[in-house]
TrEMBL record:
Superkingdom: Eukaryota
Biased composition (Basic residues): 1-11
Originating species: Carassius auratus
Protein name: HEAT repeat-containing protein 3
Family matches, as Gene3D superfamilies: Leucine-rich Repeat Variant
Gene name linked to the record: heatr3
Domain SYO1-like TPR repeats: start-end pairs: 421-679
Amino acid sequence: MGKTKNNKFKRPSFSPDGLSATPVKQTVEESEDEDSPAAELLEKLQSPSADVREYACASISRVVQQTQTIPGFLQRDAVRKIGPLLLDRSLAVRETAAGALRNLSACGGPEVCEDMVREDVLTPLSALLRECCAGFDVSSSSTVKGHKHTVEDVANEAVNLLWNLCESSSRAVSVFNKTGLLDVFLHCLQRHSQNMELAISAAHCLHTATEENAELMRSVNAAVFGVLENILFSTHTSLEYTLLRTLAAGSLWNLKSSLSPAQQSQTLTALATTLSHSLSLDAGQLIPELWRAESARLSKETTSAAESGRTDERLACPEVEEMEEDVRDEKMNGRKPNGRISKTRNDIYDLLPRDRLELREAKALLSAQQTSLEIIVNMYCSDEPSDDEWEEMSSSDESEMCADGRSDTNSSLFSPLCLSAELHTILLNHNIPQQVLKKAEFPSAAALEICSKDLTWKYLLKKMQRVQCRALTCLHNILSSMDTEFLGGASGLQAVAQHLSSLVFSSEEALKDEEFLEAVTSALRSLLQIMASKNIPQCMTPHQLMSFCETASSCELLSVRVNALAILGITGSSLAKEKNTTDSLQLIGNALLNIAMKDSNLVVCGEALDALFDVFADGDEAESAGKNINLLSSLKALQPGFRAKLRKEGKGKYSPDQLCVLDNMRINLKRFISYLENLQRK
């Protein structure tokens, strides 16, 4: 059967809050649209009036949230025109210019970020960050007269812009390394007691910039670890501090190779403590409490404002309302060539007004838990061998291809090189596997109801779902990496299987969510592989699995369809070893044959054939079921079409690795037909 290699998280390409990171293509038609606001707004950037320049930048930051307007700005050289305003003499202009570029990078996607780096936006951005850093200590009471903008506000927008660029551009990370911006970010982190928003933004960016960054390692010294450890060991109890500590833990994990062995032991324990605390918090209880606290506070402020005859603009939240209109379903499930799962994040300028304290706390809680789970995922699979090294560690007969064309390794038999005995013990001692399993449950009904009814809290729904999906991916890696005895042996695995079954069959809506489907099918596939290898009875009936796999097989996401077929194959091969399972095997066999003959994607067809080979490879029950469904004649009938389609579509549609696997499948199909013919002659 197909084998599952542990997933690894890459830093986000853009947002858990839901904005699409789909690259924006420049088109002449759009850029020349007479109704486009780009020309007028870009012209205003040259105004001698600071107020006009500020207005233009603020307007651009709002307009580009409508992604169809972005090509018009890019065609008119917007980046080169806005970039110099990062060093404008007005702090207000600096902040809104950084906000405009930040939104352009977030809404435009990776291609726009690369364009911005090529347009040399990093030169004024780096200079701005250094100026801000130098001005922190003298800016606390020196806001520009008549304005609310501070140096730290400007720095926060600049840091978020750099964060976006580093997520999408290796050139931006290289500039981060070469310009010595690490010191600037340490200074921002140290401002956490004065400006938590800035510290969290800097922590996010540092978490991104430190990942797989060997060049930066040369700049890491005791001062870097000192700042991160001071945050890690802080005792503040707010949820924003929980997020800050979690991000610091992520950066320390990325930089762990620079620590001495003695330091590593202490640091790993502190990391596990931080992650465990984050996951131990009950979002289902805390989110309703925060919502009620906000409602009470806002009601009191509204009454106070009415009595004084004034209108408090802070009570409105138009930014979130705009987000509700602009948010699109994000395309989350892309995978990087190295097997890491790409994540996306929504980074919209001024999305949450600062007075929405409780909403910010709720967002911080969910972000901390999502980040914690992503760090744990990488703990179970970081520093893994390259694809070539994986192939050398498995025989050519066992080597197979994942849905996305990456080579896979039999996770039930292979323990990742990175999971040292010490780290393994630390994670177990902090109950990490149990906490991950808990987070894999559906969000609480109370939290879902509150967020569904309140427009300003509604976007947290997606964040709660994403925490669950990250937990399922994390569970997949834990199952693939840990000895089953540490999971409670056979009874423990059956309990996990019951848990996953309850997730699969308790919500029809969940089965329509591709991200959830990918996460739950990966975890279920890994679990069933382990149980089958140890002859542990499975808890789902064939009819339940058929219902689930029917839904998953119709999903557009290739990895979900392949996982579903693998699950059918694993289940069928286990049933073939039991008595009186002919009817169930016929059910599974017919489903696999139907997909192998009719699916338009050869990778899916190949996986269906592979599953058929496993299910009907041996045993009296399999032989009887195979005859009843005319397996031999069906395979003979599809063989010419499979070969012809492989010759016709292969090179233009599939990668070299996929073609190699598909060609092996063609050979295996021929061999399996010969095997069935020999059985028939007996």
